[in-house]
Design a protein that fits this description.
Layout (H helix, E strand, L loop, with lengths): L1 E2 L2 E2 L17 H6 L13 H16 L12 E2 L2 H13 L14 E2 H10 L11 H7 L10 H25 L2 H5 L2 H10 L5
Parallel strand pairs: 3-4
Antiparallel strand pairs: 1-2
Helix pairs in contact: 4-6
Length: 191
């Protein structure tokens, strides 16, 4: 997590699955969890309390009780729905913690590709872009490593957007108003 450009830390927690019997063998293989002894993991409620404690510290970093967290992710709507459902299962509203605006790194990639900043044939899968930009990842399908990779991808793409959109024919880019406004807000320019 980052606040005003300052690194705040990370949280990686596990929990026992609520319904392990519903997990497919393929899902367990992809995540490297075949044969995992889930009984050693904390109860889901304990893991959730750990998550809330971390979030609470982030929200109070500067003492401002009105702070909200901006959710950043790749195809972030999937994550937003998952987090929203998790919070609601504990009677907590997503909007009480997170800003209603989310930042989708995929949208940034697609926008700058459309404007020629990325090669026209560039695959926009997160894993492909991470490799394309030489972002190192230790483990595939590891939540914390995926988040780190997405963070560095976000940083790389917004720097490219800032540098290259300034050099492109800005009037042509402005034709794509929603994408242009989105990118300009990300890089802190007035729209």
């Amino acid at each position: 997590s980052e606040f005003n450009g300052k690194y705040l830390g990370e949280l990686m927690t596990h929990s026992r699955p609520l319904h392990l019997e519903r997990a497919s063998r393929k899902a367990l293989e992809v995540t490297g969890n075949v044969g995992t002894d889930f009984t050693k993991y904390p109860d889901p409620k304990e893991a959730f309390r750990t998550f809330l404690s971390f979030i609470g510290k982030l929200l109070m970093m500067d003492g401002d009780k009105t702070n909200k967290i901006t959710l950043v992710g790749y195809n972030v709507e999937f994550d937003r729905k998952f987090i929203e459902k998790l919070l609601w299962s504990h009677r907590i509203k997503f909007a009480d913690i997170f800003d209603y605006k989310v930042i989708d790194v995929y949208t940034i990639a697609a926008t700058i590709k459309r404007h020629g900043v990325l090669p026209y044939d560039q695959d926009l899968k997160r894993e492909t872009l991470v490799k394309f930009f030489g972002i190192e990842q230790d483990k595939e399908h590891d939540a914390l490593d995926d988040i780190r990779g997405t963070y560095y991808l976000y940083d790389t793409l917004t720097k490219l957007a800032y540098r290259d959109l300034k050099e492109l024919n800005i009037e042509a880019v402005k034709q794509d108003a929603p994408a242009y406004n989105y990118l300009m807000r990300l890089i802190g320019e007035d729209v």
